[in-house]
Amino acid sequence: MKFNLKSFFTFGILLTVITIICCEKEVIKVKEDTISPIITSEPEVLEVSDSSSTIFWITDEPCSVQVKYTISASSDTVTQSDSEFRQNHLIILTDLNPNTVYSYKTVNFDVSGNTTESNIYTFKTEIDTGNLILYGWDAFENGDFSQAAGYFDQYIQIDSLDAECFTGLGWSIMRIDSLDSSITSFNNALNINEEYINALAGLVLALYKKGEDLTVTIFGEQTLEQDSVYAFEHDTSFNFEDIHLILADSYNLLGMIEDAQIHIDPIFPDNELTPSDSTSWVVDDITYSTYEKALTAAIDYLKNLFWSGNSP
Question: How far apart are the first and last CA of the chain?
Fold first, then answer.
């Protein structure tokens, strides 16, 4: 195992500080004191991980202390306290977010109630590489698509052969209307695993949004062939019914009306549209003069029903 001098040195400093604090006697002033404590050694971060930060500083007299910290640019402040009166202070902040910049300051109270605040400092937590994909999907499911894309992109820098991270990136940037980039990401995922179904389904949707109907039909059929009741687990509102409707619309735009009808039937079984029977050319109580017009109306009816007239 390779010896890490930096980690050994950091550990040695931290161990020394803890030893000093544990051995330090508590001193209580009994005389009247109106002078605020002085910070003789400014706060510094001794150690930081993806979820914690260890802060150390020294005051000229025994103090109880607080560290007030917040995510930079946020107004929500959290306070971590130590009620013991000491001169050497060590506070460990926990449950932090990975890869996040925090601002913090110390508040110091001597035994007479005099206070001193430090300057405001910042630190950044480490990247939790093992959970970047999980964080990405959490952000995606919460609607923060830019942050989700950032997590997936970070993971790609670590492992460029993971189909899921390219798929997550594709879905995230598609939701912020970067269609060309999302198509590239889905194709990257499929180059790694040509049967990765979330990448297939995402590619179908991105191509449909871009109006590439012929390619849509190829990958749409492949998706349903692989899973006829597909549902995207990170947004179950997108499922096999949407893919059927996408295929119906694309086939219809290509003039392949028989194929369009095939994909309408599973999601609109009561349509009863028949090319040779003009009495069946009725959609939403409106009769149409041709089968083709009725078929288009049925697709528009379903698009309005499923997507409120927009694409998913």
Answer: 52
- Percent of the chain scored above 90 by pLDDT? 79
Cβ-contact 77, 66 below 8 angstroms: no
pLDDT in tens, 160-200: 999 999 999 999 999 998 999 999 999 999 999 999 999 99
β pairing state of 282-283 and 286-287: antiparallel
In this structure, which amino acid lies at residue 171? W
Contact 18, 46 (CB under 8 A): no
Domains along the chain?
7-18+37-124 (2.60.40.10), 129-307 (1.25.40.10)
CA dihedral 152, 219, 177, 141 (to 10 degrees): -50
Q: What angle do CA 56, 61, 64 make, to 5 degrees?
A: 60
For residues 108 and 246, give the distance between their C-alpha atoms in angstroms, rounded to a whole number: 63
The DSSP bridge partners found for residue 261 are none
Q: Using CA atoms, how far apart are residues 232 and 196, in angstroms rounded to an integer?
A: 12
Tokens (6 digits) for 284: 């939403």
CB 306 within 8 A of CB 249: no
* CA–CA distance, 205 with 240 (Å, rounded to integer): 12
